[in-house]
Specification:
Helix 1 crosses helix 5. With 571 residues, the protein is α/β, with parallel strands linked by helices. The strands form four sheets. The protein has a seven-stranded parallel sheet, covered by helices on one side. The chain folds into four domains: 150 residues, DNA polymerase, domain 1; 90 residues, Beta Polymerase, domain 2 (2-Layer Sandwich); 64 residues, DNA polymerase, thumb domain (Beta Polymerase, domain 3), CATH 3.30.210.10; 235 residues, Alpha-Beta Barrel (TIM Barrel). The protein contains 24 helices and 17 strands.
Length: 571
């Protein structure tokens, strides 16, 4: 069974964390972190390359040591260095790293000072005030830690969509390879493309359920078999993701797919419609008395109910059924509608690839244009560009535009300063094709102050796109306090486009805000915020989010031709 790239990346990331907690050489720690990032974003299967005898050192960022480590993991499924570290340090330290404000260094300090090894220990020390004895642990950080503990507890055992996806697709392929399987589909929140999933619900139509169930529980990534029943089997994978496999009859496949895709609220609304007609609807079909009148196909289920087919991403009881009945259901944006990516970083700042490398990769994806939007000077941690370096970048972009068969737009991700001004003078901004404005610091302003800050920035005539509008990082940082209703209205009034940031840990705007903005008539840019070539593939996650927000092709500026796009960007 193949070892997924995500599994290898997770192993290296954990190794880096534990090495840093242990106090190892920072260069060694950084090497593992870079390895995890490179591998997580890599489109090619390392498992396949190793088994083909491919020389991994030919891949960008992969040296001889890293290549040997990857080969060890592919060969054995484990990494000996990580296994040794786990024996040296308490297991509970890893969960502390999920708390915002607690990196490995601070986790080490807490462990050495108070022997903290769990979220419960951390909460007790923080609430008792003992934590203030440590240098650098002031009231603001402690408040952040306590909020982080609450966030971690609320999140439960959920997995970001991008982390669950390779497991979902791998186990689906595993089941499809079994000769007795006729149909297999991953349902639930995964099929609705929610930004995180609690578990995977897989439906299977098989000639012999017992044989398929036996095959399923032998899936090589299974850590624990929870149950093995007559119609359902449940396992826990080695990353703690729960997978339920359910046996479905062919004649009920459509109704089961509808039922287990959900959401619960959507299903309840349709069930009430059936009851009003004197029918019964469940996972086995639609019944008029004892007569089954639909169930084999999902589209047939909706047709029998007098409805058009409703895409899984819309099934949240947010008006999709009413829209369908009124003929107003949106034609959702698709991946093929995208003509370019408008938020890309290069190695001028904190990107890992050159402008040319990013442009060629985008060209391979079929794009007509991209925008290079490196950070502005205030973001020193990212080597933000000052006026002199921006002009130097202009020269390179102009040269590349004569050389390549893709247009590179001159852009910037410009910091919105605390007072609402922008980080660069208008004399520079007016020379850019596109200006993204973003909040990267002072997240703790009051709701009123943060809202005024962003609205003032959007009034600048050269401001085009509000990047990652709420600043959230899924599972790690809540959105900053800001009145998004006012921001959405102001953006529309000023002609500012709202970004749907496709980075899987951001997905910002979220689906609810995207739908609100769509209803207000706002325009969007779905962009990857790429810092390396492989991250350009994150567009998929932004499309998922946009679809959940009812967004259509005509709502998105990077579905436009270059000429049309330039016209929209002129305020």
């Amino acid at each position: 069974m193949a070892v997924l790239n995500g599994e290898i990346a997770e192993i290296f990331s954990k190794t880096a964390d534990l090495l840093e907690i242990k106090g190892e050489n920072p260069f060694k720690v950084r090497a593992y972190r870079n390895a995890a990032r490179i591998i997580q974003n890599m489109g090619r299967s390392l498992d396949s390359l190793v088994k083909e005898g491919f020389d991994l050192t030919r891949l960008p960022g992969i040296g001889s040591d890293l290549a040997s480590y990857i080969e060890e993991i592919v060969r054995t499924g484990k990494f000996s260095k990580l296994e040794s570290l786990k024996k040296e340090l308490p297991e509970g330290l890893e969960e502390l790293l999920a708390i915002e404000g607690l990196g490995p260094k601070r986790v080490r300090e807490l462990y050495e000072a108070f022997h903290i090894t769990s979220l419960k220990d951390l909460a007790n020390i923080a609430q008792s005030g003992e934590i203030y004895k440590l240098k650098g642990f002031g009231p603001k950080l402690v408040e952040k830690i306590l909020k982080g503990i609450t966030l971690a507890k609320k999140s439960g055992r959920r997995f970001r969509f991008d982390i669950a996806k390779p497991y979902a697709e791998d186990i689906k392929n595993y089941l499809q390879n079994f000769s007795g399987v006729l149909k297999v589909e991953v349902a639930g929140s995964y099929r609705r493309r929610k930004e995180s999933v609690g578990d995977l619900d897989i439906l299977v139509v098989a000639k012999n359920w017992d044989e398929v169930s036996d095959y399923f529980v032998k899936y090589p990534k299974v850590k624990e078999v929870v149950s093995k029943g007559e119609t359902r089997s449940t396992v826990i994978l080695n990353n703690d993701l729960q997978v339920d496999l359910r046996s479905v009859a062919m004649e009920s496949y459509g109704s089961a797919l509808h039922y287990f895709t959900g959401s619960k609220a959507h299903n309840i609304k349709i069930r009430k419609m059936a009851i009003d007609r004197g029918w019964k609807i469940n996972e086995y079909g639609i019944f008029d008395g004892d007569k089954k009148i639909a169930g084999e196909s999902e589209s047939g289920m909706y047709e029998t109910m007098g409805l058009c087919f409703i895409e899984p991403e819309l099934r949240e009881d947010r008006g999709e059924i009413e829209a369908c009945l009124e003929g107003k259901l949106p034609k959702l944006i698709e991946r093929g509608d995208i003509k370019g990516d408008l938020h890309i970083h290069s190695n001028y700042t904190d990107g890992k690839a050159s402008i040319k490398e990013m442009a060629l990769a985008a060209l391979d994806m079929g794009y007509e244009y991209i925008a290079i939007t490196d950070h502005s000077k205030h973001l020193t941690v990212a080597k933000g560009l000052d006026e002199e370096r921006i002009l130097k970048q202009f020269e390179e972009i102009e040269r590349l535009n004569k050389e390549l068969d893709i247009v590179i737009l001159k852009g910037i991700e410009c910091d919105i300063l605390e007072d609402g001004s922008l980080d660069l003078p208008d004399s520079i901004l007016e020379r850019l094709d596109i200006v993204l404005g973003a909040v990267h610091f002072k997240f703790n302003l009051s709701k009123s102050e943060q809202t005024k800050r962003v609205i003032k920035a959007m009034k600048n005539p050269y401001f085009n796109v509000l990047a990652h509008p709420t600043g959230r990082v899924i599972g790690h940082r809540n959105a900053y306090e800001i009145d998004m209703d006012e921001i959405i209205k102001a953006a529309k009034g000023e002609g500012v486009v709202l970004e749907i940031n496709a980075q899987p840990e951001r997905l910002d705007l979220n689906d609810v805000l995207a739908k609100t903005a769509k209803e207000n008539g706002n325009l969007f840019a779905i962009s990857t915020d790429s810092h390396d070539v492989e991250s350009l593939n994150f567009m998929e996650y932004g499309i998922n989010q946009a679809r959940r927000g009812w967004v259509e092709k005509e709502d998105v500026i990077n579905t436009l031709s270059l000429r049309e796009l330039k016209s929209v960007l002129k305020r």
